[in-house]
Amino acid sequence: MGTPGNVDDPFSRLGPAEHVELTNLRSDLRKIVFRRACELNFGDVYSRVYFLVTQHDQAAAAYELCVKVFVYMARRMSRKRYDMGVHLITSLCMYLDQVWVRANGYLPLQAQGAAVYDMPHIVAQRRWRKAIRLVVRKQRILDWLVVFNQYAFKPKGVSAARVATHYATFVAQHEA
Predict the structure, then answer these.
(1) Which of 15, 112, 120, 147 gets the most CB atoms within 10 Å of its CB?
(2) Could you report how far apart the first and last alpha carbons of the chain are, in Å?
(3) Given pLDDT bands bounded at 50, 70 and 90, which one contains residue 138?
(4) Are residues 140 and 162 in the same domain?
(5) How far is 2 from 101, CA to CA, in rounded Å?
(6) Is the separation of the CB atoms in 76 and 10 below 8 Å?
(7) Other Cβ atoms closer than 10 A to 100
(8) Residue 69 has pLDDT above 70, yes or no
């Protein structure tokens, strides 16, 4: 999970004063992010958000949690997966989006989700993550190439025979 209060990890708890329903919403959003949304019950999550907005005065915290989850997803997901996740979260937090967000002048969740994915620093982070994966992949290929060459170029190996044939034709062409 993460350390308590970790800014980059929306799934770490904010502290002991966090409301139980907000913790449960955090767990539900975690299931969406990690592709376990089939375990969720729409009615339960919708009721949880409804109670956070109406009875527990935790709407601002729920909204901020959704935005942090959008940032977390935008750093790690392709556009298609991200849009599906944003749509699912927006559908689950419909009461928050339709009532509290409009009444308090916040950006609707769907628009916030679209804006987060295209933020320049998020795009840069995605590019760096991709570059790191490519560097790791290149290093693995280089490591495997050594093993392949040791096997393929052994005396009377397949590659050694091809190189010998190629060298013989090259010498024959240039001697004439």
Answers:
(1) 112
(2) 71
(3) confident
(4) yes
(5) 29
(6) no
(7) 19
(8) yes
Residue range of the domain that includes 145: 127-175
Domain count for the chain: 2
Confidence band for 1, pLDDT divided at 50, 70 and 90: very low
Q: Residue 38 has what DSSP assignment?
A: G
CA quadruple 61, 65, 125, 90: dihedral sign: negative
Tell me, yes or no, whether 92 and 151 share the same domain.
Answer: no
**Backbone dihedral region of 156: left (phi > 0), alpha (psi from -120 to 50 degrees) or beta?**
left
Q: Does 136 map to a domain?
A: yes
Residues 155, 110: one domain? no
Residue bearing tokens 């915290």: 61
38-47 — which CB contacts under 8 Å span 24+ positions?
40/92, 42/91, 42/92, 45/92, 46/92, 46/94, 46/95
Exposure letters 115-138 (e unless 16+ CB within 10 A, then b): ebbeeeebeeebeeeeeeeeeeee
Q: What is the domain-level CATH number for residue 81?
A: 1.20.1310.10
Secondary structure class of 164 (helix, strand, coil) = helix
